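Entry 14. Ran structure prediction on the chain below.
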Amino acid sequence: MAARLAREVPCEIPGARLKAQDRLDVTRRLVSHLKHGTTDQAEGIARVPVEVYRDRERFERELEVLFRRSPVVVALSAQLREPGCYRAIEVAGVAVLCVRQQDAGVRVFLNVCRHRGTPLCEEGLGRARRFTCPYHAWSYDLAGALVGLPGAASFGDLDRATRGLTELACEERAGMVFAVVTPGVVFDLDA
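Output, structure tokens:
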């Protein structure tokens, strides 16, 4: 039965979708299991070598695919009730900053200053009008634009427009904020 389920639900293929009849079959099977207190069972005991659970390379691949290149929940909408509310969180080793915007939308950035990579906020929830780096006091507005640069002359001919926070693809839906924590990776939440 488990082998059949694996063929019916191609989870390993990003963006794959079940056909209507397949969805109906899976739904019927799940309802039957719920009604009878059962579940799909393999034909025998599965034996997995312990190395699978301890393999560093496999772990790193899983982090990359499941947490860095796929959408993950980075905040709940209720945590970002009004403009300036933010959540700073680390996801698979990546510092992320979720911020409610003035227009009520949400944007997600890497939680690092574009100068020296220092985190702008400690992990947790808060509210701010600006995010200021504790290192050289570069400051960013809610939209991630570099708006404050103390001692600008000492930084040379710096184009502020290219030094805003690194934005990440995100979407708010069903009370959750989803994001991919790798810059440049986009996603289709429906898929």
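The longest strand covers residues 85-91. Will compare against last week's run tomorrow.
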